[in-house]
């Protein structure tokens, strides 16, 4: 009769993948240290939209814990899951603050986007849609979200402020201590990342938070003293199951383009990230395709649905899982250990909640930079693909993520027809362009 360790070895294929429980644990520590900044940054973003920061912190940890473990069990891949950067910006700043969507309605859109992900995954259409969307616009979508997140970080820190017309923004008071603190964090996190320091982002946040104890403000120090080191986690409060399932149908004009943005954001980012991570780990078949794609993408879709039910924005697979893979992680045990670490982090909430926005702003700027580098893979020598991608980038940064995606695709499709290259565009892309064009003509945004 096999021993418990032999059962673990067999279930997770430890021996066949050339790893051990100890190595998977070390890889999980590395992955968690690299992505733990989400416990700080995500609650701050969602609190800007009116949600309770302490409640969102608890939900963030629970969602990351549950769905990282689910990914490990379903797909046996060393990929962790947590509420994603980009989707949280779209929900908080574009939907709730920009369009005035109630946060309950925004969570409803996250739910339906997750349902769409799951249906598309189980039917195999998800890959077809990925192939149908122009490559340049896929990359522009990622880069544009990066620009959007960078701008939020700069604005949060006061590094840029509103300016009189015709300028959109101008440099803030850079000599102000709080602005200097945030500004100094940008080169620090860049330098630590360049030196491949594990957990560079969270280390920078901790350093700036500590310095904040010595920066006076009108209400005391920038960083307040914690009430305790450890405490029972805050409950889900009024966020649990508070989503408005009917908002999509009762406000179709505003909600449909926003939901499509959530769909495409996760469609591209998750599949691309999963493929890249599996390639790096050698977890691919003879044709170079990732192992267990249906299971992995289904877990990803369930994470989006589960996050909305819990009371937060879309949860996705995290590219920071690459850090654990580089440390030797090869199985779902890594994701399971990461999930357990998130549950343990629940009890650190008094320390996490004192972190000021100025300490997390450099993390937003740097994460945006990491996403923006995708622009280097866009072919700007082609005036149509390069032009449509540039338009997408600019509109996403200065208007909204959903408008940038929609108008970029519409312009691309029309330009390809005018230049006689209509056959180079997938019919599904034309269908999407028509639907989005009809939205702007018949139901102009508020």
Automatic annotation (TrEMBL):
Coiled coil (residue ranges): none
Gene Ontology cellular component terms for the protein in this record: endomembrane system; plasma membrane
UniProt keyword annotation of Membrane present: yes
Membrane topology: Multi-pass membrane protein
Cited InterPro entries: Azg-like (IPR045018), NCS2 (IPR006043)
Keywords: Membrane, Transmembrane, Transmembrane helix, Transport
Molecular-function GO term, any one: purine nucleobase transmembrane transporter activity
Compartment(s): Endomembrane system
Transmembrane segments: 25-45, 57-77, 84-103, 109-129, 141-163, 169-193, 200-219, 239-264, 333-355, 361-380, 392-418, 424-443
Family per similarity comment: Belongs to the nucleobase:cation symporter-2 (NCS2) (TC 2.A.40) family. Azg-like subfamily.
Name by which UniProt lists this protein: NCS2 family permease
Organism (species): Leucobacter triazinivorans
């Amino acid at each position: 009769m096999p021993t418990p360790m032999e059962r673990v070895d067999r279930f997770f294929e430890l021996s066949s993948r050339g790893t051990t429980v100890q190595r998977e644990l070390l890889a999980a520590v590395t992955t968690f240290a690299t992505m733990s900044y989400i416990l700080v940054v995500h609650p701050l973003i969602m609190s800007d939209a009116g949600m309770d920061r302490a409640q969102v912190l608890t939900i963030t940890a629970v969602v990351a814990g549950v769905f990282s473990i689910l990914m490990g069990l379903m797909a046996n891949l060393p990929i962790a899951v947590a509420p994603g950067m980009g989707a949280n910006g779209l929900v908080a700043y574009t939907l709730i603050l920009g369009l005035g969507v109630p946060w309950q309605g925004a969570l409803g859109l996250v739910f339906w986007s997750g349902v769409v992900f799951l249906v598309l995954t189980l039917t195999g259409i998800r890959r077809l849609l990925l192939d149908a969307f122009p490559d340049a616009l896929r990359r522009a979508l990622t880069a544009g979200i990066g620009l959007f997140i960078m701008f939020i970080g700069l604005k949060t820190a006061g590094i840029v402020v509103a300016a009189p017309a015709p300028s959109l923004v101008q440099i803030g008071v850079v000599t102000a201590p709080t602005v200097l603190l945030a500004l100094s964090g940008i080169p620090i996190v860049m330098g630590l990342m360049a030196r491949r320091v594990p957990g560079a982002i969270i280390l920078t946040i901790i350093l700036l938070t500590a310095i904040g104890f010595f920066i006076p403000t009108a209400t005391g120090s920038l960083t307040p003293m914690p009430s305790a080191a450890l405490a029972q986690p805050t409950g889900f409060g009024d966020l649990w199951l508070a989503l408005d399932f009917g908002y999509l149908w009762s406000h179709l004009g505003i909600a449909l383009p926003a939901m499509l943005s959530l769909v495409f954001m996760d469609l591209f980012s998750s599949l691309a990230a999963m493929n890249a991570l599996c390639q790096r780990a050698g977890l691919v078949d003879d044709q170079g395709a990732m192992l267990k794609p249906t299971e992995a993408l289904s877990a990803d879709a369930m994470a989006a649905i589960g996050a909305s039910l819990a009371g937060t924005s879309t949860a996705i697979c995290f590219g920071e899982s690459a850090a654990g893979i580089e440390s030797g992680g090869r199985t779902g045990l890594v994701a399971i250990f990461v999930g357990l670490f998130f549950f343990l982090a629940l009890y650190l909430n008094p320390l996490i909640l004192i972190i000021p926005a100025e300490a997390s702003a450099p993390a937003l700027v740097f994460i945006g930079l990491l996403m923006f580098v995708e622009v280097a893979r866009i072919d700007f020598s082609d005036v149509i693909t390069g032009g449509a991608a540039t338009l997408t980038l600019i509109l996403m940064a200065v208007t909204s993520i959903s408008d940038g995606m929609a108008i970029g695709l519409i312009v691309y499709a029309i330009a390809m027809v005018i230049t006689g290259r209509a056959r180079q565009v997938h019919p599904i892309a034309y269908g999407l362009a028509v639907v989005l064009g009809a939205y702007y003509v018949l139901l102009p945004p508020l």
